[in-house]
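for the recovery benchmark. tokens below, seq after
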């Protein structure tokens, strides 16, 4: 049985990813900083709950110890928890906004990964999926043919560019692991509160995450891709 942790798993892409992986036979733990909401989602999904706030050292350490007691190992870590501070343009971007977003999207990702590494090392095929964005790709945002090139989002984009570099470095530094970044696509979740034409469903957005979470032993590491193709860094 594959044991999987999805951070931010009580809603949006995380919830849909958990649902799909459970259907594939994974035992899924959803990380939620709100115990009540997390418990409700876990019951509805048939998942297990880990109360986990990615911005808090003690919370993450406690969650890792809880998983050690309950499962003994972790096969797949999906670093999905993230925040979006809105369409903050270059003139509006502040250090405070940058700190807030980086604390979740970047520092939180590293905090969780570091805490759960000992459990991942107990797996025969440890896998880490970092949920990123095309807005964090230099190649994508400088390509005039891509819709992402028309957005100015220095705070969010910088955080996801950092996630991509972390992915590359962890892939190089963790032999035997599968560590990849994933672009789920612009999905209708409460991360940004947008929906409508041109915005995909959470079900569609979860496809890429699930694909990389279910990699076999021949799967790639140190890559960045969406549900259909590889993407430039």
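predicted aa per position
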């Amino acid at each position: 049985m594959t044991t999987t942790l999805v951070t931010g798993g009580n809603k949006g892409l995380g919830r849909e990813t958990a649902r799909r992986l459970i259907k594939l036979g994974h035992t899924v733990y959803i990380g939620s900083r709100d115990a009540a909401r997390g418990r409700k989602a876990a019951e509805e999904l048939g998942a297990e709950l880990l109360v986990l706030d990615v911005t808090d050292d003690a919370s993450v350490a406690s969650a890792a110890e809880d998983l050690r007691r309950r499962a003994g190992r972790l096969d797949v870590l999906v670093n999905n928890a993230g925040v979006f501070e809105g369409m903050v343009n270059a003139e509006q971007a502040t250090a405070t906004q940058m700190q807030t977003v980086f604390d979740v999207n970047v520092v939180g990702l590293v905090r969780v990964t570091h805490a759960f590494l000992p459990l991942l090392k107990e797996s025969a095929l440890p896998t880490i999926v970092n949920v990123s964005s095309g807005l964090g790709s230099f190649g994508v945002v400088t390509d005039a043919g891509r819709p992402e090139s028309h957005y100015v989002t220095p705070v969010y984009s910088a955080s996801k560019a950092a996630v991509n570099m972390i992915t590359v470095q962890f892939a190089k530094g963790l032999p035997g692991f599968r560590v990849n970044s994933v672009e789920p696509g612009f999905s209708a979740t409460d991360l940004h509160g947008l929906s409508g034409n041109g915005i995909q469903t959470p079900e569609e957005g979860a496809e890429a995450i699930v694909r990389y979470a279910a990699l076999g032993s021949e799967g790639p590491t140190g890559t960045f891709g969406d549900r259909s193709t590889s993407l430039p860094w």
